[in-house]
Amino acid sequence: MKPVLISVVLGISLAGCAQVEGLFDRSRETAAEDSAAVPSEADPSGVRPPETAPVPVSGARTAEAFDTTTEQQRAEAVAGAAPAGGETDLGTTVASLGAPGEPGFWLKTPLADVPGKGRVEYPDKGTSVVVDLIPLADAPGAGSQISLAAMRVIGADLTGLPELRVYRLPD
Q1: 51-74 pLDDT tens trace
Q2: CA-to-CA distance for 110 and 135, rounded, in angstroms?
Q3: End-to-end CA distance of the chain, in Å?
Q4: How far apart (Å, rounded) are the C-alpha atoms in residues 42 and 158?
Q5: 3-state SS of the chain?
Q6: Pair 136, 65: CB distance under 8 Å
Q7: Arithmetic mean of pLDDT over the chain
Q8: pLDDT score recorded for residue 54
Q9: Environment class of residue 106 by beta-carbon count within 10 Å: exposed (0-12), middle (13-18) or buried (19+)?
C-alpha cells in the first residue's frame, strides 16, 4: 500500500472510533435521565414510589458515587426492618443489582402484585432493610432487581446474586 492511502485509511478509522466513543459517552451521561423519563415495563402508568435520595451526578463511577442515600436514610431503612407483626411473607427470590442510577431503597420483583412497602432479608448475612416493593411483570421464579443502596445495606456482593426473603409490610 502507498503511504498516502495508508494515512487516509488510518484517518478514517480513527475518526470513526471517535464518533463511536462519543455515542457511548452520551449514553452513560444520560442513562439515568432516559430511564426516569420512560415508564417502566412493570408500571406503564409511570407512577413510581417517592425518591428517597437525589439522582447520582453524571460521571458517577463508583458505588459510593451512585449511592446518594444519607447515613440517616440508611439507618432508618435498617431500623424499620425489624420483623413486625402483620407482615406477609411473599417468598424468596434471587436478586441482581438493579439500575445504579435509580436512587433509594427498592426491590423490583414478580413476588409483589401491587406497589407498597416491604422488607428484604438476606439470610446469608442476617441483615434486612425496608424497601419500596415495585411489581415486576414476570413469572415468580424469574428473579428480582434490588437497588444499589439496599444491596449495600444488607451487605450483599454487588456482583453477586443473593437469595432474599421478601415480606410485604402492613399499611
Answers
A1: 456 665 566 666 776 776 878 888
A2: 6
A3: 75
A4: 23
A5: CCHHHHHHHHHHHHHHHHHHHHHHHHHHHHHHHHHHHCCCCCCCCCCCCCCCCCCCCCCCCCHHHHCCCCHHHHHHHHHCCCCCCCCEEEEEEEEEECCCCCCCCEEEECCCCCCEEEEEEECCCCEEEEEEEEECCCCHHHCEEECHHHHHHHCCCCCCCCEEEEEECCC
A6: no
A7: 74
A8: 64
A9: buried
β-strand partners of 42? none
- Structure confidence by residue, pLDDT tens digits, 151-161: 999 999 999 99
C-alpha cell at 94: 434471587
Place of cell 426473603: 165
Bridge pairing between strands 88-97 and 116-122: unpaired
- Which cell numbers in the block locate residue 67? 449511592
Q: Which residue has the cell 433509594?
A: 104
Residue listed under C-alpha cell 442513562? 31
Tens digits of residue pLDDT in 106-133? 999 999 999 999 999 999 999 999 999 9
